[in-house]
Amino acid sequence: MQLRIVTSEREMLxxxxxxxxxxxxxxxxxxLPGHTMxxxxxxxxxxxYSNASKTDHVLITSGxxxxxxxxxxxxx
Length: 76
Description:
The protein has one domain: ATP Synthase, domain 1, CATH 2.60.15.10. The model has no long low-confidence stretch (mean pLDDT 97). It has a 5-stranded mixed sheet, with no helix packed on it. It has 76 residues and is mainly beta. The chain contains no helices and 9 strands.
């Protein structure tokens, strides 16, 4: 899957991932390959992402996320 994290100033991250955990408005949500289309608000917390070689995270204060066709776009 392709994960992009974008702020109003720049693209923070663009990478291939196997899974993503997002701080959704109603709690954490995990995105895996083949996930259905999704549009959701994000609350303050941590976007955690992993691939075969590593797990990493980005702290955010708020935002929204769109998941479509194994592409995840987080506007934070």
